[in-house]
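**User:** Hello, beginner here. Are you able to go through the protein record under this note? It all follows right here:
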Amino acid sequence: MNTMNDQHGRSRTGDFDDVHDVVVIGAGAAGLNAALLLGRARRKVVVIDAGEPRNAPAAHMQGFLSRDGLPPAALLELGRAEIARYGVRLLQGRVEEIDHGYFVRMAGGVVLKARRILVATGLRDELPDIPGVRERWGRDLLNCPYCHAYEVRDQPLAVLGTHPGAVHQALLLRQWSDDVVFFPHTMDLAAADRERLTAYGLRLAEGEITRLVVDGDKLRGVELADGRVVPRAAAFLFPRMVPHDALLTGLGCDTDGTVRIVTDRTGLTSVSGVWAAGNVIDPRAQVITAAGMGSAAAFALNADLLDEDVDRAVEQHRLTAGAVPAE
């Protein structure tokens, strides 16, 4: 077996020097954490980043042990610096296609060859077309109670009924405030849900929402179609979460019958050699959860690569051992 050292001093198998062991697509918590472990395992890894993190509008992230309150951009900056220490390359750009030969084709014509692929492209939050929603998103119009409710605790809160998950979101928020108003908006609120909300101490503001009222760069209330303005200090909205999974569906990865990509517990898809991690396969995963998913995928990726390396070494060994010496 032809073994040599690469530019980072790592021992490499000559058969694979012209390809990357793993191409990671997406440089959020899942992709970076996977790249970190794979770099420490002395694998040849490149991470491709399109530069569109889902949590970019948020000023801080919460619930991540030792990083609680850190700006999301700061976490990514730390992660990029850490993977660089282990020789992991980071490329800025967008992947347009992956083919079944593990060729990763980027916009602009760059093509990378990989032995294995990890897709960690996340998702986008699809917001309702209500004036003020996009402007306040991630500021005082929030999504996850576990991520943001503590910072607006005991304040007058609104929950906008623009998604079926909004009822649960409103009930959950009562843990952080005694003053929560649910706005059914255009929802046909079931009688059982109406009873649960009322019994649990939430008020209902009937009528279609026309806009969020903002004054002095702060949310002041929610305006309804009849002209009423219900004063609120912060609002919550359950967005429609749309995974960036076109690369995976383009490969023919199995879904669960809806739109969710099916994987095993390590993130392995139905397509051999292709893993996925983070919000692209689990829309509800928080940052710390996505990082853990990246870690699990990295362990499995390295084990799979090791099996292939050993199989090739055994094959070469048998060929060498079986060779007839020249006379």
Summary: The longest helix spans residues 287-321.
